[in-house]
Specification:
About 30% of the residues lie in helices and about 25% in strands. Strand 6, helix 3 and strand 7 form a beta-alpha-beta unit. The protein contains six helices and nine strands; from the N terminus they run αββββαββαβαβαβα.
Length: about 270
């Protein structure tokens, strides 16, 4: 990690008008509608930002937006990076460090994932209360990590308890069904086998996806309070497994997203 690269990325965005955002938001697969709720939005495409990676997944946009949501200044990452695109974990989490450098005080993350817990159904949302890092690496495993924070970051409570409580309160007030559970992060891009779904269930996972955990680790490294919500887009029952339809996953994520937008917007209003 080269500090000068971060400084140049941050300086470019500040020059564009990304001034002192309070909240950072990472949007997952099929979850891009939130940007339509931003007021006075400014955007910067990833290919314009010095040293920023480029999104390569066809259904992920590639831009950073700045604007007002819930009465607060926010910076929104529309299109994230994944290990399965060939990026290393430093690239995957680079935007989190940039948003932190811009001044965010809280980080909100969304993703689309598969339900391992068969009591959870596609189209529901799950508040992540803990995770399993099964991606085979750490975004903190680099030589000068001590220049950016403590090398041995504490992960005893990776998801901020106060943010999670507010989200649960809002869900109850708005009559929004919200599950809670453990998210397992795998590399992908292939979907899991029946045996792998059985393994994940034994390990204690309630949902599985290919993102989020690296960003959460870096947020904890930066002592940045973080909350994350999974939109459950398919049911991973190894005894009745059918081929996954990516188009259906995108459609389910899009149909569920308005509820997620309510949770995030009302949370931001209360910060």
């Amino acid at each position: 990690m080269i500090p000068k690269h971060l400084e140049e990325s941050i300086a470019y965005l500040k020059e564009k008008g990304f001034n002192r955002p309070e909240v950072g938001i990472v949007l997952g697969t099929g979850l891009g509608q939130l940007v339509n709720h931003l007021e006075e939005a400014i955007e910067a495409h990833y290919n314009q930002i010095p040293f920023f990676p480029l999104a390569t997944v066809e259904f992920h946009s590639g831009k950073l937006l700045f604007g007002t949501l819930g009465g607060k200044k926010v910076v929104v990452m529309q299109g994230r990076f994944h290990m399965y695109e060939g990026y290393d974990l430093l690239d995957v989490t680079y935007p989190i460090r940039v948003m932190h450098g811009l001044g965010i005080k809280h980080l909100l993350i969304s993703n689309a994932s598969g339900a391992i817990n068969l009591n959870y159904k596609k189209g529901e949302m799950m508040l992540i209360e803990d995770h399993l890092n099964l991606q085979g690496g750490s975004p903190l495993a680099f030589k000068n990590v001590g220049d950016f924070g403590e090398r041995f970051a504490d992960m005893s409570r990776p998801y901020d308890a106060s943010l999670s409580k507010i989200i649960k309160d809002i869900a109850k007030e708005e009559s929004i069904s919200l599950q809670e559970g453990v998210y397992a992060a795998v590399v992908g891009p292939q979907l899991e086998t029946r045996a792998e779904y059985r393994m994940l269930k034994i390990l204690g996972a309630d949902a599985v996806g290919m993102s989020t955990v690296p960003e959460v680790i870096v947020a904890n490294h930066l002592k940045l309070p973080v909350a994350a919500i999974s939109v459950l887009t398919d049911e991973c029952d190894p005894e009745h497994l059918k081929p996954v339809d990516i188009a259906e996953i995108i459609a389910i994520a899009g149909a569920t997203e308005p509820k997620m937008i309510i949770l995030f917007t009302k949370l931001i209003e209360r910060l």
